[in-house]
Amino acid sequence: MKLETRHAVLASTLAISGCLSGVAFGWAALVVMLKREGAYEELCDRSADDDDGACAAQEVALSRVFSIGILCLFASRLPIGVAVDRLGSRATTAGTCAVAAAGSLCLAERFYGLGFGLLAGAGPGVHLGAMHVSNLFPEAKRTALGAYSTAHQCSTFVFSLWLPLFNAGASLRQLFRGYAALLLVFGAGCCAAQPRSRYELGDAVARAGCAAALVGAPRKASAAPSLRDQVAAVWRTEGFRPLLVYKSVSLLSMQFFVAVLQYRLAGRGAAASAMNLAFNVFASFLGLLIAAPLVGPILDRRDDGVALIRRAATAQAVGFNALLALSARSAWPLAAELPSYLLWASSRICFFAYFFAHCVKLFGFGSFGTAVGLLSLVGAAVCFAAVQPLCALAFQSSTGIAAVSAGFVPLLIAAHAYAERALLRAGADAATRVVDAGGAELDGAELALRDAEPGRGEARV
């Protein structure tokens, strides 16, 4: 394969996403280092005899930092998505790198809540703001989209990679300052690799000094619709609400599995640590083994690829919930949990590869950020509202986890059936597409916005 400038653009944006986009989910490794450096240690009652009780306030304070970060991560997706659509990819990605660098410096100076909130909230910017680069690879567009999901999952391992440096004597202040410098370099890289707006299908890039430059005639700029009209067009797009239901149920089942993981491993000693490591490795790196060689080519080369990967994601979600229900009711050896870990990680990979590919098809890149942000925000709100009550219900009795996880099986099947029927009826999985007079592909929300612009030519191919 001949290496071209577009490959450098893809590699650089994947590297940036792999170092930042989902870094907040690596909290388990970061909190170990924070405790060793004495974060919130001043809250501990050193005169108490019970060390665990004495530092309960420290645990609460650290949990609050994590909650702030996760809340910022989910809450930022809609404004970041709107920024991608309206300000363009260059401003959004470079700006979020600068915000993340500021958060890293705050963490270095022990402003933990502010710093982790800024760092976590900025992560989606380099993820959503780079996915349009897949348009530079029309022959493998969905494979490139899937690569960003894999990079996002790999980013959860960043803080784990710091542990050897920390154990060797590096302080968190040094690590976070170095990370901030790296993020500023990434911001400069975004300015070099990203166009002002976004790459379209048919674009080519060539090296211009240290940056990538578009090749070909400049595109005619069109007036941007109002934010209200754009959100309304996304909401009216046929298929939006079924996709929202399917995403919410799928995310809820995955979040519940993670929420009960530590509870089920508690008191298992060294074996539990090994299983925890196995789960984190599957979650972070399984995508490198199956996303590019398997999921991406299916999405790109089969007319029914989007529907096929959606079905695979649902089948695997049903599988890990069924295994969780069975293992919670039985005295299985701990190693017997590994298949459910594997299915969870694989289902997550398939789901997000499908989700982003389908969003591009359904909404087009003109409204992609707004649509993904809205879907992610509502889906996350459902998870926040439902996970804790479900966990409380599951922990009430010895059969609670089995009952809740078994209940997800028919719920997943019903949500999938609803989404499948509605999305196929909307033609989201069909090969028919609409292009404007300039040859740019229009989908979903873009078509709704186009209807308000008389005289714009179109052709069906």
From TrEMBL:
Keywords: Amino-acid transport, Membrane, Transmembrane, Transmembrane helix, Transport. It comes from the Eukaryota. It is found in: Membrane. It is a multi-pass membrane protein. InterPro entries: MFS_trans_sf, SLC43A_AATransporter. The chain crosses the membrane at residues 111-133, 145-163, 277-299, 338-356, 363-387, 393-415. Belongs to the SLC43A transporter (TC 2.A.1.44) family. PANTHER family: PROTEIN FMP42. This is Major facilitator superfamily (MFS) profile domain-containing protein.
